[in-house]
Amino acid sequence: MSSTLVNAAVGPSAVAPSPVSKLPDVGTTIFTTMSALAQTHGAINLSQGFPDFDGPPELLERVNYYLTHGFNQYPPMMGVAPLRQAIAQKVEDLYALKCDPDSEITVTAGATEALFCAIASVVHAGDEVIVFDPAYDSYDPVIRLQGGVAVHIPLTGPAFGVDWQRVKDAINERTRLIIINTPHNPTGSVWSEDDIHQLRELVSDTNIYLIGDEVYEHMVFDQQGHTSLCRYDDLYARSFVISSFGKTYHVTGWKVGYCVAPEQLTTEFRRLHQYVTFTVNTPVQHGLADFLQARPEHHLQLPDFYQAKRDLFCELLAPSQFKIRPAAGTYFQLLDYSQITDEPDHVLAERWTKELGIASIPISVFYQDAEHCAHKALRFCFAKDDATLRQAAEILCKL
Ligand code: PMP
Ligand code: GLN
């Protein structure tokens, strides 16, 4: 092709029309927005959920080993065998589920990709999907991209529990999927055995699929067990269970997660995954496999590790004006600011980032309609060094 032709096609006067958006109502995510604001104002960033400490040195060493020993070409589409085997072993040890690493486990580019592929695997135009508000921000747009309809049911009360009567009333012949997120971002609530019992009753005679977004599976506190969908054979039979190594190993930037699902669901999941990312980078997969095998105690210690951080943060804030209900799980703590101000949460989160130098996440943005958020609360991430938590608490106690 001659350079004249190329220049004519893309010269400065050639302006492409804006595409017709499939998500015209969607802006930049709150996590990106608040982290950018925190950076601009030099604020302590307790907004976007990520640790301010690094992953285990031995894990970093293993990844470095593979990176420098020739493990840099495409791995298999579904993930490297040692990692899938290690995940299968972990799922069996923790949840007594025997699953086949070849036909039931797929390694993904973070839980985000797994959520996309799982939703797209089962949701067709006109299908309804039940999500609980406040809902993690990716569910609703991905459902709508499939032509599906997200049916938002608010969690209720100070404990953000599921109103099972409302779920029952919402189910009809168009209901294709229910998305469960326990431990729950942004509220820190966790499901009980009774929730599982109620779910079982509602779906047993239906064709409804389930997604278990369980990225905080190792952050359940006060000796409560994690109600993974992997634990219940009848529920697992209709489930995509999703987790994230980013959370478990303090390496959110690596973006490696996985989906465990019965063979017929995994087959469809991989049909999409192979065209979304095809696969996930090789050295990190091998490094994770080694670390999972050598150090299973790492994830077993996580509940205590994060519970200590939750307790420290809550103790430090005890003299403050905030109303605090300690999180039952995740690495997020909601702080009810209703005794301090009646400003809307998104206004306050922005103001405190700029004026106090502390960034948080407003929770009303996770509702279909912010007006439905009855809470005056902000979300603070406590996956931080104790010194950072002390600094943050000092500021918050002055309010
Ligand atoms: N689900 C929930 C509830 C999350 O909080 C997150 C983000 N941290 C994700 C999914 C996405 O995880 P990943 O970073 O592994 O894509
Ligand atoms: N899951 C993280 C949080 O809740 C953010 C992930 C992201 O930035 N997309 O803060």
Explain this structure.
This protein has 399 residues and is α/β, with parallel strands linked by helices. The protein has 2 domains: 30-55 and 298-397, Aspartate Aminotransferase, domain 1 (Alpha-Beta Complex); 57-294, Type I PLP-dependent aspartate aminotransferase-like (Major domain) (Aspartate Aminotransferase, domain 2, 3-Layer(aba) Sandwich), CATH 3.40.640.10. 41% of the residues lie in helices and 14% in strands. The strands form 3 sheets. A 7-stranded mixed sheet has the order 2-8-7-6-5-3-4, sandwiched between helices. A hairpin with a 7-residue loop joins strand 9 (323-324) and strand 10 (332-336). The termini are far apart. 4'-deoxy-4'-aminopyridoxal-5'-phosphate binds at residues 49, 110-112, 136, 181, 185, 213, 215, 244, 246, 252, 255, 257. 4'-deoxy-4'-aminopyridoxal-5'-phosphate (PMP) binds at residues 49, 110-112, 136, 181, 185, 213, 215, 244, 246, 252, 255, 257.
Assign an overall shape: globular
The H-level CATH homologous superfamily of the largest domain, spelled out, is Type I PLP-dependent aspartate aminotransferase-like (Major domain)
Percent helix range:
40-55%
Mean pLDDT: 96
Question: Strand-and-helix sequence, N→C?
Answer: HHEHHEHEHEHEHEHEHEHHHEEHEEEH
Total domains: 2
| Structural class determined from secondary elements | alpha/beta
The low-pLDDT segments are none
CATH architecture of the largest domain: 3-Layer(aba) Sandwich
- Small molecules (ligands, ions, cofactors) in the structure: 4'-deoxy-4'-aminopyridoxal-5'-phosphate, glutamine
Strand fraction: 5-15%
Number of helices: 15
Q: Report the strand count.
A: 13
